[in-house]
Design a protein that fits this description.
Largest sheet: 2 strands, antiparallel
Number of strands: 2
Strand content: 5-15%
Helix content: 55-70%
Distance between the termini: 33 Å
Order of helices and strands: HHHHHEE
Number of helices: 5
Radius of gyration: 17 Å
Strand order of the largest sheet: 1-2
Length: 88
Amino acid sequence: MLVQLAVGIVLGAANLSEAEQLQLHHRPLFGLAASHSTARRMLAALDEATLAGIAKVRARVRRHVWSLLHLRPGGFPWLTVAGKRLTG
């Protein structure tokens, strides 16, 4: 279920309900979707070792993504919204 939530976040889910909807949409990939209440209980039950492992993987992925962005011509693809360039 944790991997399903991570994939849901990558696909754009901003909360557990959206992650559940993405799981339903991608049922052939995920199988049965876990409800957001089940996901909430699973997250609450994670121990310190698991949370530390998640933090370690997140840091490694962030370093990799930032290194790829550093190699991109022009650097990070900053957004322009209503004529204002959003940076930082």
